[in-house]
Amino acid sequence: MKYCKRCVYPETHPHNMTFDTEGVCSGCRTHEEKDVIDWNERLESLKKLAERYRNKDGSNYDCVVPVVGGKDSYFIMHIVTKILKLNPLLVTFNEQYNTKKGIRNLANLLTKFDCDHIQYTIDPGFAKRIVKASMKKNADMYWHCNAGSNVFPVQMAVKFNIPLIIWGAHPLVESVGMFSHHDFVEMSRKTRKEHYVRGHEQLIDDEYNITEKDMKIFEYPSDEEIEKVGVRGIYLNNFFRWDSQKQHEDMIRLYGYESGEQERTFNPYENVHCLYSDGVHDYLKFLKFGFGRATDHACRDIRLKRMTREKAIELIQKYDYKKPEDLKIFLDWIGMSETEFYGCVDPFRDPKAWEKVEGKWKLKDPIIDHVKEEGIDDVRLQKIEERKYILTVSPESDEKDDKPYLLGRGYLDKRNFRAVTD
Predict the structure, then answer these.
(1) Residue 136, CB-side half-sphere exposure with 13 Å CA sphere
(2) Which residue from 204, 185, 194 is spatially nearest to 33, judged by alpha carbons?
(3) Which label site among 77, 105, 319, 354 has the fewest CB atoms less than 10 Å from its CB?
């Protein structure tokens, strides 16, 4: 199997990564643009863009900003409110896989940035039926998360007549380089329909008591409705040199963002809001494509010149192969046996990555066999910085989450017993 000779991404990446004649992946080549773009100029262009959408008479919000209790929500809000000085409507699709830390992070964000917020929680029983159907049909436990978190902001933009949605990093620019920073890629009809709500029709099924009417909540507004409001979705990584590690550390310092250990990766920053994101969800990716979140994070650190390729492979060996402890929690929640779980996954294993030997699945060509290859030193990035990840101290005596939380307190004060409004 082909692996990038600079980072450690395999050719099985689900978003169609390509490799050039030197064996370097498209994601690494796109990342090189970050070192030559004039980011000061980009910031000025963002300010001009934001000014065009500012609600001059204060009768409406300036933009919609999707937020959760993890990922890059704090950094996005810092840019929107402190740099661009916009008045956003914050929106959250409740994925229902919440952790206590994520609930606190979201409550702290709403408090520190002092903005209006709408959260949408679908019927928990319906959510469970969707997850079971998407697991059975696509080995995907995250369909409702991806669909809901991308559809709901557009629905709210149309409903409240707010033309601008501000997202963080476009994932297909940051990871695989499907687009260049010079493309200034924005939210598009193609991405909406083919990436975030793909498989929508498959989930309508009498067996799971899911009707076409039920699925309306995951439908984008019509093209006519979107065009009438003029809804436009922009991505901040077109205007800032995206560096998620540095950004999270700034947010820890400025606003008290909480980080937390993750079972299947060394990076404690991004997915602390979700019990399964770096657990079962990531394990499914590994079982299908032969790599996991530790690979994603290691590739990014290589590109930022903070990690050697050899260290990355060492960390991948430590984390990507782990069977997550939260698998049992998920299976108990959904009502599925472990045998059923693997039965859902096996038809979706990429044959480039996996083969069955004597009744057991094994990786055909793991990354450990690609430590030394011709051409690696020719394209190697020299490590120039040592940056250690920060584990914050929890304000509560958290034990490990043993279940996902539907909802939690809207505000956590230091006395930890009552809501306050002052």
Answers:
(1) 16
(2) 185
(3) 354
Q: What is the pLDDT of residues 65-76, one digit of tens each?
A: 999 999 999 999
Q: Are strands 232-235 and 63-66 parallel, antiparallel or unpaired?
A: unpaired
Q: What is the reported pLDDT for 196?
A: 62
Give the pLDDT score at 421.
Answer: 37
Half-sphere exposure of 199 (CA within 13 A, CB side): 19
Question: If DSSP states are collapsed to H, E and C, what string results for the chain?
Answer: CCECCCCCCECCCCCCCCECCCCCEHHHHHHHHHHCCCHHHHHHHHHHHHHHHCCCCCCCCCEEEECCCCCCHHHHHHHHHHHCCCCEEEEEECCCCECHHHHHHHHHHHHHHCCCEEEECCCHHHHHHHHHHHHHHHCCCCHHHHHHHHHHHHHHHHHCCCCEEEECCCHHHHCCCCCCHHHCCCCCHHHHHHHHCCCCHHHCEHHHCECCCHHHHHCCCCHHHHHHHCCEEEEHHHCCCCCHHHHHHHHHHHHCCCCCCECCECCCCCCCCECCCCCHHHHHHHHHHCCCHHHHHHHHHHHCCCCCHHHHHHHHHHHCCCCCCHHHHHHHHHCCCHHHHHHHHHHHCCCCCEEEECCEEEECCCHHHHCCCCCHHHHCCCCCCCCCCCCCCCCCCCCCCCCCECCCCCCCCCCCCCCCCC
Bridge-based pairing state of the strands 360-363 and 354-357: antiparallel
Euclidean distance between CA atoms 297 and 299, whole angstroms: 5
Nearest one of 328, 322, 273 to 96, comparing CA atoms: 273
Max Cα distance, the chain (Å): 71
Amino acid letter, residue 58: G
Domains located in the chain, CATH noted? 26-279 (3.40.50)
Q: How far apart, in whole angstroms, are the C-alpha atoms of residue 403 and residue 276?
A: 10
Length of the chain: 422
Could you report the per-residue pLDDT of 378-419, keeping only the tens digit for each?
999 999 999 999 999 988 766 678 888 888 766 555 544 443
**Tokens standing for 300?**
């990014």
